[in-house]
């Protein structure tokens, strides 16, 4: 596993980070298996674990805390980068829409309370990365900025970030590098139009972490979940109901065919390797409930696409003429 600096912070994050949300945090997924995923990820070199206060109906964060407690029995706290989010009040993100402020609270009081609760849930002393979840520039205020800086001064958080998929909000964040240290947004080979924005954020010292590198699983041929344990139905519901995921489903076939044809690595590895060639991206977040998939993706950190394979991916994206970034 290779590591990269997160913006202007002192944090060195693994190129592949583990997303601890979704079906991984669901009560229907056995905790023994969930903890096994965390332990294997750390064994493979992942030091960056990302979750959210509201994920999996508020179940993912304390589950990650229990898992990391076992890891920290044999490792010092500073070897692990723990990231979580605040602001969302609903136990699950709205499925039929991408943004709904009725489910959020970005008042300074709510954000500070969430931070303290997260530290308790995660049993981690402090948070390495603390993000505003589903951030909307309309909710930003001087009071909130002071609150975030105060959390840093108290030693409760080491860096402040924003999790959003909206271009206008990311541009807004880029104007406040003195407040925000990083962003977490989506990017994959169907969203290469996002690169200009990512490069601009990085040029201002704001670290960039990306998710949805497999376009919610639609860039690989196999199922993204297993029918026997319920995960397939969970992901199928998201594909049908969420607008952005429907877009990935509609446009993924030509790119999936190209990724599958690359001889030097698997389709999933090619999707990650292409994104990781952009050194303005610090880490790619990936979630899974399958050890085999975890190992496959981690191996992409040490793989390199040929120039021919990169050109095939870029030509396919250009031919699709996509602008999925919002």
How does this structure look, described?
This protein is an alpha/beta fold and 326 residues long. The chain has a single domain, classed as TIM Barrel. It has 13 helices and 10 strands. The strands form 2 sheets. An 8-stranded parallel beta barrel has the order 3-4-5-6-7-8-9-10, surrounded by 5 helices. Strands 1-2 form a two-stranded antiparallel ribbon. Helix 6 (142-153) links the parallel strand 6 (129-133) and strand 7 (160-163). Helix 2 runs parallel beside helix 12 (291-298) and helix 5 (108-122) runs parallel beside helix 6. The longest helix is centred in the C-terminal third of the chain and has 19 residues, at 243-261. It starts with a strand and ends in a 6-residue tail after the last helix. 47% of the residues are buried. The mean pLDDT is 89.
**Number of E strands:** 10
* Unreliable stretches covering 5 or more consecutive residues: none
Can you tell me the number of structural domains? 1
Name given to the CATH architecture? Alpha-Beta Barrel
- Name the CATH superfamily classification: NADP-dependent oxidoreductase domain
Question: Helical stretch count?
Answer: 13
Structural class: alpha/beta
- Rounded to an integer in angstroms, the radius of gyration calculated over CA atoms is 18 Å
Give the DSSP E fraction (strand runs of 2 or more residues).
5-15%
Can you identify the CATH class?
Answer: Alpha Beta
**Fraction of residues in helices?**
40-55%
**Order of strands in the sheet with most strands:** 3-4-5-6-7-8-9-10
Order of helices and strands: EEEHHEHHEHEHEHEHEHHHEHH
In CATH, the topology is named: TIM Barrel
Measured between the Cα atoms of the first and last residue, the distance is: 32 Å
**Average of pLDDT:** 89
Mind describing the biggest β-sheet? 8 strands, parallel, barrel
Shape: globular
């Amino acid at each position: 596993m290779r590591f990269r600096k997160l913006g202007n912070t002192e944090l060195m994050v693994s190129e592949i980070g583990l997303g601890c949300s979704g079906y991984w945090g669901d009560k229907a997924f056995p905790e023994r298996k969930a903890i096994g995923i965390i332990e294997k990820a750390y064994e493979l070199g992942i030091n960056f674990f990302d979750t959210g206060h509201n994920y999996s109906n508020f179940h993912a964060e304390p589950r990650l805390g229990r898992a990391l407690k076992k890891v920290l029995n044999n490792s010092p706290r500073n070897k692990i980068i723990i990231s979580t989010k605040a602001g969302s009040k609903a136990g699950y993100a709205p499925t039929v829409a991408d943004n709904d402020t009725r489910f959020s609270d970005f008042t300074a009081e709510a954000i500070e309370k969430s931070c303290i609760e997260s530290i308790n849930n995660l049993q981690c002393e402090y948070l390495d990365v603390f993000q505003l979840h589903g951030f909307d520039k309309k909710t930003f205020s001087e009071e909130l900025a002071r609150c975030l800086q105060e959390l840093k001064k108290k030693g409760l958080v080491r860096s402040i970030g924003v999790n959003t998929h909206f271009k206008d909000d990311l541009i807004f964040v880029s104007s406040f590098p003195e407040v925000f240290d990083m962003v977490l947004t989506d990017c994959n080979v169907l969203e290469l139009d996002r690169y200009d924005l990512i490069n601009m954020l990085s040029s201002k010292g704001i670290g960039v972490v990306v998710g949805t590198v497999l376009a919610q699983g639609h860039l690989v041929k196999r199922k993204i979940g297993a029918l026997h344990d319920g995960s397939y139905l969970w992901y199928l519901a998201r594909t049908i109901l969420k607008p952005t995921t429907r877009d990935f489903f509609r446009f993924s076939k030509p790119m999936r065919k190209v990724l599958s044809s690359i001889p030097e690595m698997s389709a999933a590895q090619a999707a990650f390797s292409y994104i990781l060639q952009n050194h303005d991206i610090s880490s790619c977040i990936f979630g899974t409930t399958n050890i085999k998939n975890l190992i496959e993706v981690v191996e992409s950190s040490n793989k390199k696409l040929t120039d021919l394979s990169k050109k095939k991916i870029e030509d396919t994206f250009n031919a699709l003429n996509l602008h999925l970034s919002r």
